[in-house]
């Protein structure tokens, strides 16, 4: 995992997205504060953080909708500005998909594409419509669509230009479980074809299943960045089944490397400092006469995510 | 730019509000013409527009001028305010604006396209009113020249002016051919349309300040109402000459005069100045603002 204290970064040569010391202030409020990370070609990077962490603001800066108060955002090596040419290589969905409600889905797609000076026959319309899966409904007015239909039409729109980079802000909002799976598979398929993906999501399981890398934000700042495996490893969580839970809690509570130990079901959930090995815990328990039945690492992104947020809150 | 104009025009004309407005702009002139026709020769209360009401019975060519005089003071202002104020704010409210900008599209070009489309639709609104009034007026009153009673020496430069009802004095009668009437009508309509340029500039500017179309439209129409209120205060003196509504009615005497008045030139100048200043402000602000919608 990359150190979180670095204010700026030295981006790799194949970086598609670079957020370099970006801050965004709204009056006295810092929505994003000295944020730096990079996404290299082919990565599927999840942008995680609680509500208000600054994820959407970061993505808005990245697509030129908002100007950073400090720092700079780069796409494909070029600084981002409103109407930057690099945006033509990007398919973006920022917050919910939105359309002209009194026009049909098809007309919306056509007008959006033509607004950029393109001809619809040059776009990947068939592929986009296949993704949307709206059938004849694509000829209905968008105001009659459900939120899920709008999201799918939004995906169709961002795929019209065969983008090299997808920037997705909560892309599965409003979708049912089947549609979420379809979108997850679509992102995976696009990634396998070489597209780079940066997505923010509240669905940690989805990020864990879809992403290769993760950037965690909290209070506008970078909390952690690295591969999913590296982030998960930060949790140091372990689940223990023992013959005497009360006695084990006493032993673990006195252990200097244990940050938290709590009864969970028939066993104990333990959070430790990253330096503590699981064998250290077992040794301490056995030394105190506690029999250890099972030791199960809590290797889930959700645990790591919450651990990082709690660690950030404690600073 | 042409593609942008085409997409913005498609978005604007296909909304049901635009279609309903267009129907209203056709229906009202028809109603007014029918009302004049059904009123017969009964005398009308004295006041503004009485001259045009009387003349409208002579020729259908006067009906569109009368209709414009009736509708340009409020209804067409509301329509123009809606078109201008909604241009950016309407797209922002639906969330569509951010996707157009991500496409990517230059903000200034987008604003120009939106303002151009609003301007064209404002002109079309005036044209609809004139066309509906002309068609209905011709059917009901025919395509004739008019005979105008004028007070001798009442107008500067020897131009004849329409005699108000009940004025005593020396009169002469002049004839205005149908062809001349038509030309003056078109000049008057063009002046009315140009007269909404300030409103277009203000509306476009307000539209970039907010994501609420109702707010932008309200501010635009409100600015015009304030202008009319201020214009009614003579103590403001020459300051009133710079108000966007000061010369709004300057075209109305043209129908019976030989020349385009000085006030009309001044009116066009004021309108263009407002359009340029507030259009530039709108472009400057829109190019820099954060898109939060």
How would you describe this protein?
The complex is a heterodimer of chains A (315) and B (293). By secondary structure, chain A is α/β, with parallel strands linked by helices. Helix content of chain A is 33%, strand content 28%. In chain A, helix 3 packs antiparallel against helix 4. Chain B is mainly alpha-helical and 293 residues long. Helix content of chain B is 65%, strand content 4%. Chain B contains eleven helices and two strands; from the N terminus they run αααααααββαααα. Chain B has a two-stranded antiparallel sheet. The two termini of chain B are 24 Å apart. About 4% of the residues of chain B have low confidence. The chains are: A alpha/beta (315), B mainly alpha (293).
Alpha plus pi helix count of chain A: 10
Radius of gyration of chain B: 21 Å
Using the alpha-carbon principal axes, give the shape of chain A.
elongated
Strand content of chain A: 25-35%
Main beta-sheet strand count, sense and barrel state of chain B: 2 strands, antiparallel
Q: Biggest sheet of chain B, strands in spatial order?
A: 1-2
Structural class by sheet pairing and helices of chain A: alpha/beta
H/I helix tally of chain B: 11
Assembly classification = heterodimer
Number of β-strand runs of chain B: 2
Radius of gyration of chain A: 23 Å
**SSE series of chain B:** HHHHHHHEEHHHH
Strand count, sense and barrel status of the largest sheet of chain A are: 6 strands, mixed
Q: Taking strands numbered 1, 2, ... along the chain, how are they ordered across the largest sheet of chain A?
A: 6-7-8-3-9-10
Strand residue content of chain B:
under 5%
List low-confidence stretches of chain A: 2-7
């Amino acid at each position: 995992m990359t150190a979180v204290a670095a204010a700026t970064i030295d981006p790799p040569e194949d970086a598609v997205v670079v957020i370099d010391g970006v801050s965004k202030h709204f009056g006295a409020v810092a929505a994003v504060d000295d944020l730096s990370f990079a996404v290299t070609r082919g990565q599927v990077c999840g942008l995680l953080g609680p509500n208000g962490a600054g994820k959407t603001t970061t993505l808005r800066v990245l697509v030129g909708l908002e100007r950073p108060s400090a720092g700079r955002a780069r796409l494909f090596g070029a600084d981002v500005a409103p109407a930057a040419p690099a945006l033509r290589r990007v398919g973006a969905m920022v917050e919910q998909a939105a359309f002209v409600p009194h026009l049909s889905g098809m007309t919306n797609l056509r007008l959006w594409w033509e607004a950029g000076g393109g001809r619809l026959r040059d776009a990947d319309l068939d592929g986009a419509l296949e993704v949307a899966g709206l059938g004849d409904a694509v000829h209905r007015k968008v105001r009659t669509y459900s939120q899920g239909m709008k999201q799918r039409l939004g995906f169709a729109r961002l795929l019209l230009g065969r983008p090299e980079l997808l920037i997705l802000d909560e892309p599965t909002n409003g979708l049912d479980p089947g549609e979420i799976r379809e979108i997850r598979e679509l992102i995976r398929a696009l990634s396998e074809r070489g597209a780079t993906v940066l997505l923010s999501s509240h669905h940690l399981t989805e990020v864990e299943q879809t992403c290769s890398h993760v950037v965690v934000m909290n209070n506008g700042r970078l909390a952690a960045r690295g591969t999913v495996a590296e982030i998960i490893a930060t949790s140091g969580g372990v689940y223990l089944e023992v013959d005497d839970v009360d006695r084990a809690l006493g032993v673990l509570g006195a252990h200097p490397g244990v940050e938290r130990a709590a009864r969970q079901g028939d066993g104990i959930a333990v959070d430790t400092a990253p330096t503590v090995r699981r064998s250290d815990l077992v040794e301490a328990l056995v030394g105190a006469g506690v029999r250890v039945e099972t030791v199960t690492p809590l290797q889930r992104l959700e645990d790591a995510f919450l651990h990082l947020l709690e660690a950030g809150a404690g600073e | 730019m042409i593609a942008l104009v085409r997409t913005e025009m498609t978005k604007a004309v296909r909304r049901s509000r635009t279609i309903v407005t267009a129907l209203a702009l056709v229906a009202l002139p028809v109603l007014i013409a029918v009302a004049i026709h059904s009123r017969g020769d009964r005398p009308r209360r004295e006041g503004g527009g009485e001259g045009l009401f009387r003349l409208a019975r002579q020729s259908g060519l006067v009906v569109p001028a009368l209709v414009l005089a009736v509708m340009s003071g409020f209804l067409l202002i509301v329509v123009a305010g809606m078109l201008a104020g909604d241009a950016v704010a309407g797209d922002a409210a639906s969330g569509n604006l951010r996707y157009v900008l991500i496409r990517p599209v230059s903000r200034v070009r987008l604003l120009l396209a939106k303002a151009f489309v609003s301007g064209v639709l404002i002109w079309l609104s005036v044209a609809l009113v004139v066309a509906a009034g002309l068609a209905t007026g011709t059917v009901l009153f025919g395509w004739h020249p008019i005979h105008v009673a004028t007070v001798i020496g009442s107008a500067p430069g020897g131009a004849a002016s329409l005699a108000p009802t009940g004025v005593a004095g020396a009169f002469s009668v002049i004839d205005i051919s149908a062809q001349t009437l038509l030309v003056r009508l078109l000049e008057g309509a063009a002046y009315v349309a140009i007269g909404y340029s300030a409103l277009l500039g203000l509306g476009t500017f307000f539209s970039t300040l907010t994501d609420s179309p109702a707010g932008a439209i309200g501010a635009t129409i409100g600015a015009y109402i304030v202008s009319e209120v201020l214009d009614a205060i003579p103590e403001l003196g020459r300051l009133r000459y710079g108000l966007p509504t000061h010369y709004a009615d300057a075209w109305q005497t043209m129908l019976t005069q030989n020349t385009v008045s000085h006030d009309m030139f001044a009116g066009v100048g004021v309108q263009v100045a407002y359009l340029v200043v507030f259009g530039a402000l709108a472009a400057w602000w829109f190019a820099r603002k954060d898109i939060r919608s």
